[in-house]
Design a protein that fits this description.
Layout lengths: L4 E6 L4 E5 L21 E6 L7 E12 L13 E4 L11 E3 L5 E9 L8 E6 H14 L9 E5 L2 H7 L9 E5 L4 H4 L7 E5 L2 E2 L3 H9 L6 E8 L2 E8 L4 H18 L1 E5 L2 H7 L3 H6 L9 E6 L4 H4 L7 E5 L2 E2 L3 H9 L6 E8 L3 E8 L3
Antiparallel strand pairs: 1-2, 3-4, 3-6, 4-5, 5-8, 6-7, 7-8, 9-10, 10-11, 11-12, 11-13, 13-14, 15-16, 16-17, 17-18, 17-19, 19-20
């Protein structure tokens, strides 16, 4: 038995990354779950019903199954369904192919009794891998945000909109305000036909595809509008909840450093001698300005690292600091206890550097 530390979690797919202090442990290889087909044989391992380690077998009964079991309005449900016996206690165990490679993480059962009634559900390993890699590298899951809600097409929608389709296909869209979708020209009533060339008919197909992408990634959406097909390129953003969370993290880290800052206003810039020529020399575009340190707490990390009132912060690592918001975001995106290089400009010295450890 080992004790484990939770490194991070993602409630949208009900996955957590754990760390144990041990070496030379046996490992399983992760396999592309996208390679699975209905009818493939699979094996489920777990500790169900307090009976100890158990191995069961079955076939893949369905792919991309929704079950409405993740308690989050933005939950991503695209489960592998299998008739391998899964009971309480199997959750978190691997679903394997016949080569012993992990294709899914056992998650839940479709049941009316609380016990196995023929169908178990597993999270595709590709979704779990995406969350795991983000948590390992960034300490959290970075997930693209499109800003749409989707409804499956029905014969009734085809009739009402008088659409010339041989069958209902695609997804009817509603566009959320102030979202990347709205910014890039999507409209309520558009019918989404494909994402990056892959046809889509179910909301969880789109959710799974967007989940694997990062903020800043581009996606090509093929839509039907007024009976005409068109392609739109959309750059994914961050969910408002994620944006607020990062702002809170960055603000707390700025406070932990013992710093108070504000944007460098023209009056302060003139007083310090930070003119347009100097700004251009330091790589700032017209209209951009760094931030000014206006407060340092006694005994703080900032004081120990010899930052001073009147220092101008121009960069943190490779991020150009053009506002207080950008500084807070840059701090939020650093790993806890990571060392960051603060680039400073001082009237009596010029460019100076300070290496500061970021703490929560």
């Amino acid at each position: 038995m080992f004790s484990a530390k939770v490194i991070g979690a993602d409630s949208l797919i009900d996955i957590a990354l754990l760390k144990i202090e041990a070496q030379q442990l046996p490992v399983l290889q992760l396999r592309q779950s996208d390679d699975l087909q209905i009818g493939d044989w699979v094996l489920a391992i777990g500790h169900p019903l307090g009976m100890g380690a158990t191995l069961t077998h079955g076939i893949v009964s369905a792919l991309g199954r929704r079950a409405r079991i993740i308690d989050d309005a933005y939950g991503v449900e695209s489960f592998i369904q299998t008739d391998a016996v899964i009971n309480p206690g199997n959750s978190g165990g691997p679903l394997l192919n016949l080569y012993g490679e992990v294709v899914g993480i056992n998650t839940a059962i479709s049941t009316r009794t609380g016990f196995f009634m023929g169908y178990g559900l597993a999270i595709p390993v590709e979704l779990a891998r995406s969350a795991m890699e983000d948590i390992r590298v960034h300490g959290r899951v970075l997930r693209g945000y499109l800003g749409i809600s989707m409804s499956e097409m029905t014969p009734e929608i085809l009739r009402v909109q008088d659409l010339d389709m041989d069958r209902p296909r695609g997804l009817l869209l509603s566009i959320l305000p102030d979202s990347p979708a709205e910014y890039h020209g999507l409209e309520d009533g558009d019918i989404l036909l494909s994402v990056n060339g892959q046809d889509v008919d179910l909301p969880n197909q789109v959710q799974s595809m967007i989940y694997r992408m990062k903020p800043g990634n581009s996606v090509i959406l093929t839509i039907l509008r007024d009976r005409e097909t068109m392609d739109l390129q959309v750059v994914l953003g961050k969910r408002e909840l994620e944006t607020k969370r990062l702002a809170s993290i960055g603000t707390n880290r700025l406070d932990a450093l013992g710093l108070s800052v504000q944007g460098l206003c023209p009056a302060s810039a003139a007083e310090l001698g930070f003119d347009l020529a100097l700004a251009s020399q330091l790589g700032f575009d017209p209209g951009q300005a760094p931030v000014l340190i206006v407060g340092i707490e006694s005994g703080s990390e900032a004081e120990r690292r010899r930052l001073r009132l009147g220092d101008v912060i121009t960069d943190v690592d490779e991020t150009r600091i053009v506002s207080e918001h950008v500084l807070i975001q840059a701090l939020a995106e650093l790993m806890p206890n990571e060392r960051a290089i603060f680039w400073l400009w001082r009237p009596d010295y010029g460019v100076d550097l300070r290496v500061i450890t970021i703490r929560d």
